[in-house]
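Supplementary Methods, section 5.1.

A reviewer requested that the exact input to the structure prediction be made available. We therefore reproduce it here, unchanged from the version used in the analyses.
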Amino acid sequence: MAIGQRYEAILNAGREVVARRGYHVASIREIARAADLSLAGLYHYVGGKDELLFLVLDHDLDLLLRAQRSRWRRRGRPRPRCWRSCARTSISAFTTRPR
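The structure derived from this sequence is encoded token-by-token as follows.
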């Protein structure tokens, strides 16, 4: 598996396990298992659960910003009354992406 694919698998596993179990209950071992990695293998990519949470949030916010910029290019920058549309795009970006 290429490094980009492995990285994506780790983020997806972290996102899924934390969403299902909660941040404090989810273990790094469980996340490693979900990513099909050994514990040492996961630690090769991330320093721990805190770092993984940061990486997931950073990645997902980047996706949100890209979706918003794409919408702005098509429709122009939003006026204050258009913020509802921005919120819908934001929600759509997270609820329609493949798992």
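The helical segments are 3-21, 28-34, 39-45, 49-75, 83-95. These observations are discussed further in the main text.
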